[in-house]
Amino acid sequence: MVYLQITLKIAEANRAAAAGIYQKYKGPFLDTIAGAKSKELLVRNEDVQVLHGFVSQEDASAYLQSELFTTDVVAGLKPLLDADPEVRIYQVA
After folding, report:
1. How far, in Å, CA of 40 to CA of 16, rounded?
2. What does the domain layout of the chain look like in residue ranges?
3. pLDDT tens-place string over residues 57-89
4. The model's pTM
5. CB neighbours of 92 closer than 8 A, spacing ≥ 6?
6. 86, β-bridge pairs
7. In angstroms, rounded to a whole number, what is the distance separating the alpha carbons of residues 35 and 3?
8. In DSSP terms, which residues pair with 90 in a beta bridge?
9. What pairs with residue 42 in β-bridges?
10. Which CATH number is 2-91 given?
11. What is the mean predicted confidence (pLDDT) over 36-47?
């Protein structure tokens, strides 16, 4: 299992809108992205994280180049971000 973690700096006032984008694209992510296994929204006081589960690192990297991510998700979130997202890929040991 591989995890793609995207950490987003989003003001509290914009978090409901960000959660709406998460909900809108969760189904299409799970239904259309190769190797997609899970997607979770984690909310902390200091940031919001989206944790994506994949079969392989190649699948996680490919998602970052996909139209769903670059055209839909990024475009929807961009006006809500206070800083550039932090993207990390983890391999389960």
Report:
1. 15
2. 2-91
3. 999 999 999 999 999 999 999 999 999 999 999
4. 0.93
5. 1, 2, 3
6. 7
7. 11
8. 3
9. 49
10. 3.30.70.100
11. 95
